[in-house]
Each structure stands twice: as C-alpha cells, then as structure tokens.
Amino acid sequence: MTAEPPPQLASDGVMADVLAQGRAACYKARDAFFACLEKEADKKPTEIATVGLLYPAQCKAARAEFAAKCRPTWVKHFDRQYCARKRVQRLLDDGNDPHRGPISLPQPYTFKP
C-alpha cells in the first residue's frame, strides 16, 4: 500500500483541497478525465479505476491528474456518480433489448365474465 502525502494546510489551518481554489482544480481535473472517457469511448478500456470503472490508456494522464488534485474519497464518489449515470443512460437508450429501456407499467386489469 502506498503512503499518501500529508494533506496541505492553508495559512489558517484549513485543508487546502476543501477551499474554493482546491475544489475548482479538482472539478476541472474531473471534467477533463470524464471528457476524455467520452471522447475515447470507442477505444478498448484497459485501465481499472475505483468502483470498477474501466478507462482506455489514452486517458491515463487525465486520470492521474484527477487522482492527484482530488481527495481519494471524492474520486471514488465521482466515479460512482459517473457509473450510475452511464448505467441509467444505457438502460434508457438501448432499444434493441426488450429487457432494457423505459419501464412499461402493466395496465389495470378489468375482469369481464
């Protein structure tokens, strides 16, 4: 297990990554990584991130920057959010599989003898 660097403290004792500047840098790195994932969606994913997220090797640098600029718990949270959004999108968009897509609710049954 690799040792994480000690958190950087701002002058007033607050961790630097939770300040607005740190959060903005984290969000920018996150958006760059997920934009790379969307752009390289046709490539074969060969790298594994947290929560089972797979990504192509072309996004390795963006992933490293994302992991460096954000807290590990935030990275895991954003990965989970992305996976959940993609799962829902896949379920709603795929029209070829009858088990996917919008849920068709059963119609009320009226019994007529």
TrEMBL record:
One of its GO terms (cellular component) is mitochondrion. It comes from the Eukaryota. SUPFAM superfamilies: Cytochrome c oxidase subunit h. It is found in: Mitochondrion. Keywords: Disulfide bond, Mitochondrion. InterPro entries: COA6_pln, COX6B-like, CX6/COA6-like_sf. Residues 92-113 are annotated as: Disordered. The keyword rRNA-binding does not apply. The keyword Mitochondrion applies. It holds the Pfam family COX6B. PANTHER family: OS08G0441400 PROTEIN. This is Cytochrome c oxidase assembly factor 6. It comes from Ensete ventricosum (Abyssinian banana).
